[in-house]
Write a structure and sequence with these properties.
Length: 266
């Protein structure tokens, strides 16, 4: 299937590693040129060089702090100056859950809440504001907001809050921007295998007196396909949603976590 992405320009916020990097790679394999945006220049440069070598597409990196208005505004200006326009935005610039002990109610501090919401919710708004004018000018665009399945389960107060907010943001943007040819969707990954997973499993196994292999099996057993979903597998879903062929999907929240057992969403 031709996803009709050749020649499109995609900006991936949080694209230097993890799910963001996997999405950037898959979009480039489908013919898109890529702007990677993240905080760390060395990691950005390495990711850009790797993706360019693998795909033959133009890939640039821009250092950005999505928690800062001026930084995001400058990122958008640099991206458009370098590429001419931006067709696709993937918001993935947020610290994933599950790599640190989850704070209980007594441990939740205002600074932590403010930072989490500023990066994953307000940061997503900033990035959209930076590139939507370019999409409106061309009459076409796609925005995919990466959230997470903590939106659909308890156990992480702030994780649930920020992920529910991203879903609500996506639907509001979809209704506002749909008439301009811009589709907006939210994707909820579950536990996802990235380059950070095994080091985190080793550290957690030592803390919990178990083995990394047992923790990986527990991760796989947490979904209905009994398979630990990889960043590349999430990227396949997102890449379709970034394509013109996804025209019929707007304002929806799509889970990409291998299926949560027993729960029904309709």
């Amino acid at each position: 299937m031709d996803l009709q992405l050749k020649g499109k320009v995609a900006l991936i916020a949080g694209g230097s590693r993890g799910i963001g990097k996997a999405i950037a790679t898959q979009l480039a394999l489908e013919g898109a040129d890529i702007v990677l945006a993240a905080r760390t220049k060395d990691r950005l440069d390495a990711a850009a060089a790797e993706i360019a070598a693998k795909t033959g597409r133009k890939v640039i990196g821009i250092v950005v702090n999505t928690g800062d208005d001026a930084s995001v505004k400058a990122m958008g200006e640099q991206a458009i100056a370098a590429m001419g326009h931006v067709d696709i935005l993937v918001n993935a610039a947020a610290e994933p859950g599950g790599y640190a002990p989850t704070p209980t109610l007594a441990d939740v501090k205002r600074d932590f809440v403010d930072e989490e919401m500023n990066i994953k919710v307000t940061g997503y708004i900033r990035c959209a504001q930076a590139v939507v004018p370019s999409m409106k000018a061309s009459g076409w665009g796609r925005i995919v907001n990466i959230s997470g399945l903590a939106a659909r389960q308890t156990g992480n107060i702030v994780g649930s809050m920020r992920n529910v907010a991203v879903s609500a943001l996506s639907k509001n943007l979809a209704d506002e921007l749909g008439p301009f040819g811009i589709n907006v969707v939210c994707v909820h990954p579950g536990g996802t295998v990235t380059e950070r997973t095994m080091p985190a499993m080793i550290e957690r196994a030592q803390r919990d007196n178990t083995t990394p292999e047992a923790l990986m099996k527990r991760m796989a057993d947490g979904n209905s396909i009994k398979h630990a979903v990889t960043a590349e597998e999430v990227a396949h879903v997102v890449t379709f949603l970034c394509s013109p062929l996804s025209i019929a999907i707007n304002g929806e929240t799509i889970a990409a976590g291998g299926g949560a057992p027993r729960a029904i969403y309709y």
